[in-house]
User: Which sequence fits this backbone?
């Protein structure tokens, strides 16, 4: 009898939640997808592509707009989303996985709990890389063992800063990182002007969609990639995983660069009603499966290897279970 009553209770809760979800509508509202970098880069491109198709999969077919909120490599956006964003489903954000790991690495400015954010889905899994402009006259990563070059970055919490520092520490390279650029597009312009020599955080999808012409012209060369195997885009370029020592160095690389599998994650604020979270995740799944979304992605050169929200939530939780010794080493390498 007790089990029967319990089952009836569960069914009642489910029926109530389903009814509440059916009542939710975004009609007449704007849904905002915020990006923590300036316009024109990879994150911005993915956000705008997603926003163009999301509205028709939400009840009430709302207008979906993209808002650029650059600051500290997207850290300011993550803090605002966690502490001040509306909890009705009208505010979403594309938060880089590197920023989502900042609380793990002891950043006192990262005033949020990654595992309490509601992760809606990941737009793409990708492999990142570091590239160098032709004026630096660098032929391969080995040249950086004997000479220093300057990397441009957005902020200390972004992969444009974290990746070159970790790479340099693990392989023994001489580099300098200058932060303060609004996004990868601004860093690319700075490279062309000769302000900086190189940058990291260049995903393969971004290179294909925005910088392939620079690669083909010999203006931009890829120094190193960060997948566990060499990428088919640059089969002659070494992966960091070929070069790191086994043990803690390997574990550190897997912690830092393994997050690349979460290339473009979409988050909603904490404390949302479960039925709203479920509705947003359902809309995300429908959007990335939409034939029009897929066709446009192919047209503009975006890869799509998406991940559902529930799985994404588990992925972030797993990073926070990393061995303490490895996390401590990561903090040292990052200068935390």
Assistant:
């Amino acid at each position: 009898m007790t089990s029967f009553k319990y089952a009836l209770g569960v069914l009642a809760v489910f029926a109530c939640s389903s009814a509440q979800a059916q009542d939710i509508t975004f009609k007449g509202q704007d849904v905002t997808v915020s990006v923590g970098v300036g316009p024109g880069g990879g994150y911005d491109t993915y956000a705008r592509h997603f926003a163009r198709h999301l509205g028709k999969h939400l009840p009430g077919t709302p207008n979906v707009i993209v808002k650029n909120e650059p600051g500290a490599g997207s850290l300011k956006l993550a803090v605002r989303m966690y502490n001040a964003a509306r909890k009705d489903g009208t505010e979403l954000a594309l938060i880089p996985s590197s920023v989502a790991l900042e609380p793990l690495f002891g950043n006192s400015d990262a005033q949020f709990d990654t595992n309490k954010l509601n992760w809606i889905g990941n737009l793409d899994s990708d492999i990142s890389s570091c590239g160098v402009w032709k004026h630096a006259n660098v032929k391969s990563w080995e040249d950086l063992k004997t000479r220093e070059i300057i990397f441009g970055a957005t902020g200390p919490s972004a992969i444009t800063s974290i990746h070159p520092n970790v790479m340099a520490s693990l392989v023994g390279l001489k580099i300098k990182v200058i932060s303060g650029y609004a996004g990868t597009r601004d860093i690319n312009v700075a490279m062309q002007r000769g302000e900086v020599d190189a940058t990291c955080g260049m995903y393969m999808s971004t290179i294909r969609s925005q910088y392939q012409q620079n690669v083909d012209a010999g203006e931009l060369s890829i120094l190193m990639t960060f997948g566990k195997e060499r990428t088919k885009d640059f089969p002659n370029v070494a992966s960091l995983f070929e070069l790191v020592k086994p043990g803690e160095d390997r574990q550190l690389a897997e912690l830092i660069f393994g997050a690349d599998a979460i290339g473009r994650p979409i988050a909603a604020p904490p404390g949302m009603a479960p039925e709203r979270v479920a509705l947003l995740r359902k809309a995300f799944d429908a959007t990335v499966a939409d034939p029009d979304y897929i066709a446009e992605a192919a047209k503009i050169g975006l890869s799509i290897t998406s991940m559902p929200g529930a799985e994404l939530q588990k992925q972030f939780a797993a990073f926070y279970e990393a061995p303490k010794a490895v996390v401590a080493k990561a903090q040292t390498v990052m200068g935390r």
